[in-house]
Design goal:
Layout: H1 2-24, H2 36-61, H3 69-86, H4 91-114, H5 120-139, E1 144-145, H6 151-158, E2 160-162, E3 168-170, H7 171-189, H8 191-201, H9 203-208, H10 213-239, E4 241-242, H11 251-261, H12 273-292, H13 301-332
Antiparallel strand pairs: 1-4, 2-3
Helix pairs in contact: 1-12, 2-7, 2-10, 2-11, 2-12, 3-4, 3-5, 3-10, 3-11, 4-10, 6-10, 7-8, 8-10, 11-12, 11-13
Length: 333
């Protein structure tokens, strides 16, 4: 809870500071941050990145990692319009196939990691390269989109829950909230969630206590890949086109940074969905801040991501040491 309150406090501080610097003290009569358009776009981006962040949180809690998220987003994001426009498949066939590919990818990751005992870093790094290569080969490096058709499908990305005449909560954010609620219930209120935490804390102890650790890991990677696939569909619906050479590039870094910021320990066994969502919101807010403030170079975005991940890992390590010292002091007392 303290970690969640800390990241929430940081989010609010950055939010207020951005408002002050972009609108109040900018010297311009027109607001750039505190506008309905900006906030609708911010909520949409939080929703899109929040979905893939929830997925990677399940993997990180097991003590694993998934570096292939961006390439899965690319493969599905390019593959869906390719199936619809190039192959002429109906929506009711193309969408399940796209999600099915994501599930198969997650299953393959899980089996390679649990049955062949390959390192998650290596498996998913290879996946990053393979799925990007498949997307580029499938489309011959051509940009694919929905053009002017499939209005019913594209409506999913532009629909908003109306709050006022000009402001509404975008569909991707609502989808993320629904996924987050389900994920939080699974982690906190089910046997699966308790076993997942136990696996991340001490895999050997979990196995000796009768937990099917291999099965738990496989399910975690399937969840991660499935949400990456769903994110890929929503991203391409939002942009209406996808270039296989760069679509989804570095998305895994955004997702991992959000999870780490939100309290997921890279050692495993620790993390909350609420924290992950706040972490994703903070990452998108920082990106928004960089773009709105003219005196901050736009090309330092990845420097910010790297700093955030490093800070999160450092705080996690320091917290672990403090907790260990307290337990040692209690034993000696």
């Amino acid at each position: 809870m303290k970690r969640i309150l800390g990241i929430l406090g940081l989010f609010l501080a950055v939010y207020v500071l951005t408002w002050l610097l972009a609108d109040v003290f900018s010297g311009s009569d027109r607001a750039s941050f505190m506008t309905e358009y900006n906030h609708v776009n911010l909520l949409k981006r939080v929703g899109l990145y929040g979905i893939i962040s929830v997925g990677v949180a399940f993997v990180i809690i097991t003590g694993g990692i998934d570096l292939s998220i961006g390439s899965v987003v690319c493969l599905v994001g390019v593959g869906l319009p390719f199936m619809l426009t190039e192959l002429g498949w109906p929506v009711l066939l193309a969408v399940p196939v796209a999600l099915g590919v994501s599930l198969v990818i997650g299953l393959a990751h899980g089996l390679l990691i649990t049955k062949l005992r390959l390192q998650p870093f290596i498996v998913t790094l290879c996946g990053l390269l393979i799925y990007r290569g498949l997307a580029r080969g499938l489309t011959n490096d051509q940009v694919y989109g929905f053009q002017t058709g499939f209005k019913g499908l594209k409506q999913l990305a532009v629909w908003r829950l109306p709050i006022t005449d000009s402001f509404g909560i975008p569909a991707p954010f609502l989808i993320m909230v629904l996924i987050a609620i389900v994920a939080a219930i699974v982690l906190n209120k089910t046997t699966f969630g308790r076993y997942l935490m136990a696996l991340g804390n001490n895999e050997e102890a979990a196995r000796l206590s009768g937990i099917q650790t291999d099965r738990m890991k496989i399910v975690a990677y399937v969840i991660c890949a499935a949400l990456a696939g769903l994110g890929g569909m929503l991203f391409v619906l939002d942009t209406n086109s996808a270039a296989p050479a760069d679509f989804g590039n570095f998305f895994e870094l955004y997702a991992i940074a959000a999870a780490v910021l939100g309290g997921c320990s890279l050692r495993g066994g620790q993390g909350t969905i609420a924290g992950v969502i706040i972490g994703a919101a903070l990452m998108r807010l920082l990106y928004n801040t960089i773009n709105l403030l003219p005196w901050i170079p736009n090309n330092i975005e990845f420097a910010v991501i790297g700093t955030v991940i490093l800070a999160g890992v450092t705080v996690d390590e320091l917290a672990k040491r403090v907790a260990a010292r307290r337990r040692a002091a209690q034993r000696d007392a």
